[in-house]
């Protein structure tokens, strides 16, 4: 007896049943927005390397920018709701989840956690509304996985600071109104807020990307940029400052990856149901079913892991190495799923008309940024053995 295909592979484990009504409502609202404003255009935006900047105020109105932060115009939701919003954003395209991660978890969080009252009042309400855009400069051309070696340097000149150096691979860099920039000082690493238009601060967008094409990635240059002491994030001292922001963004990614994988499996189920070879839908072949069953198992595991970590975060007892477990596992599983789904679509799988290869290409960046899979393996290895293997 034949039945109807399952539309959402997360239904297999009834994942939605362990969410609260409010969490389900937030997830559905974000999904509706994306279905209306992003999904119809995303293939074209990816092909043309276009970031739809005009959506920033709409995302602000939707409440997803800095949504898990309290005060200053932020929605103040729980961590699971933020994760579910990331899941839906990444189901549409990793570029939109990236935009929201960088705005809320890196730019806004750095100010919210480490900034002065004046800095918070000046920037957070505008960033939450999407009226201003933020970016976060940690990576440099010669220092990616090892940010402690950064060369960008800020030195005192009277009451001011003079900033010199460059940052590389910075999401939103070319369109940001304010950059959170991490630099060495004589007292160690410190963070600075550098507004667009500050003399000596320039940006250049990185072209010819084969991944995250619907997102802007840029280089930042600082040539004798003079900043007042009030531009320094007063509470951030050492590498702990930027790394604490990464915890927030990595948390969003471990949910986001589930969304990208879900979208790929949905596309594959739909395609397998309608594509006929040897006079039968390809969904009726055992090899196709094994692929779909195995992928749905690993999707369910990833979703349950994300939810577990979300509940720990909401109880304020999540540890960085647990976030590494989630990012490492869920991104690794998502990219494997995206590639496998592409095979189910045959030649059509290489067309931008379908999402799996776009997701797979995007996930190449996701595997690398916010700590490469190797770095997260070593963070987990260190937690298990007590031995540091980075150096
Ligand atoms: P280490 O000696 O281990 O630590 C230095 C200080 O930092 C503290 N710390 C943390 N604090 C908060 N959260 C964490 N996750 C932390 N990990 C370490 C640590 O306690 C220490 O504090 P203190 O007060 O004792 O000084 O540092 P290390 O130099 O050995 O490096 C450790 C390592 C390799 C894990 C770290 O540097 C790392 O995570 N590297 C990966 C770099 C990375 O993830 N870069 C991401 C750049 S941003 C980005 O990619 C945005 S993409 C966004 C998008 O578009 O979505
Ligand atoms: P490297 O650190 O040079 O690593 C190269 C390879 O060596 C990797 O496989 C790595 O795992 C491996 N490796 C390095 N050290 C070790 C070791 N000790 N043991 C084993 N293997 C090791 N950065 C920001 O600051 N802000 C942003 O907004 C931002 N956005 C990004 C957007 C995109 C699209 C991309 C692709 C990157 C972005 N990044 C951003 C940069 C990103 O965080 C870095 O690319 C990442 O941290 C890795 O650094 P790297 O590329 O220099 O690689």
Automatic annotation (TrEMBL):
Residues 237-384 form the Acyl-CoA dehydrogenase/oxidase C-terminal domain. One of its GO terms (molecular function) is fatty-acyl-CoA binding. Transmembrane segments: none annotated. Coiled coil: none annotated. One of its GO terms (biological process) is fatty-acyl-CoA biosynthetic process. It comes from the Bacteria. Keywords: FAD, Flavoprotein, Oxidoreductase, Transit peptide. Belongs to the acyl-CoA dehydrogenase family. This is Putative Glutaryl-CoA dehydrogenase. The lineage of its organism: Bacteria, Bacillati, Actinomycetota, Actinomycetes, Kitasatosporales.
């Amino acid at each position: 007896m034949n039945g109807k295909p399952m539309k959402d592979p997360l239904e297999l484990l009834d994942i939605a049943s362990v969410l609260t009504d409010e969490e389900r409502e937030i997830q559905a609202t974000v999904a509706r927005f994306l279905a209306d404003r992003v999904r119809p255009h995303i293939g074209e935006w990816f092909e043309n390397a276009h970031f739809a900047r005009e959506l920033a105020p709409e995302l602000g109105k939707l409440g997803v920018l800095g949504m898990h932060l309290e005060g200053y115009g932020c929605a103040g939701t729980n961590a699971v709701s933020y994760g579910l919003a990331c899941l839906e954003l990444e189901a549409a395209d990793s570029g939109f989840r990236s935009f929201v991660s960088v705005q809320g978890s890196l730019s806004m969080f750095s100010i919210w956690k480490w900034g002065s009252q004046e800095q918070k009042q000046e920037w957070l309400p505008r960033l939450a509304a999407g009226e201003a855009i933020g970016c976060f400069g940690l990576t440099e051309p010669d220092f990616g996985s090892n940010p402690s070696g950064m060369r960008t340097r800020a030195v005192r000149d009277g009451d001011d600071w003079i900033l010199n150096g460059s940052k590389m691979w910075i999401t939103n860099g070319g369109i940001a109104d304010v950059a959170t920039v991490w630099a060495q000082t004589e007292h160690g690493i410190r963070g600075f807020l550098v507004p667009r238009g500050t003399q000596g601060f320039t940006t250049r967008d990185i072209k010819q990307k084969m991944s995250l094409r619907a997102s802007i990635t840029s280089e930042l240059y600082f040539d004798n940029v003079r900043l007042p002491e009030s531009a320094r994030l007063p509470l951030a001292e050492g590498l702990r400052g930027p790394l604490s922001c990464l915890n927030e963004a990595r948390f969003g990614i471990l949910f986001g990856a589930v969304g990208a994988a879900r979208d790929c499996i949905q596309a594959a189920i739909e395609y397998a149901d309608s594509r006929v070879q040897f006079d039968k839908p390809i969904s009726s072949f055992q090899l196709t079913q094994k692929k779909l069953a195995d992928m749905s198992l690993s999707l369910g595991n990833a979703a349950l892991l994300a939810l577990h970590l979300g509940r720990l975060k909401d109880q304020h007892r999540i540890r960085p190495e647990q976030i590494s477990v989630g990012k490492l596992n869920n991104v690794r599983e998502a990219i494997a799923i995206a590639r496998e789904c592409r095979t189910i679509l045959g030649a059509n799988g290489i067309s931008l008309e379908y999402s799996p290869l776009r997701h797979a290409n995007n996930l190449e960046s996701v595997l690398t940024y916010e700590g490469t899979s190797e770095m997260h393996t070593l963070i987990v290895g260190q937690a298990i053995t007590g031995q540091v293997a980075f150096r």
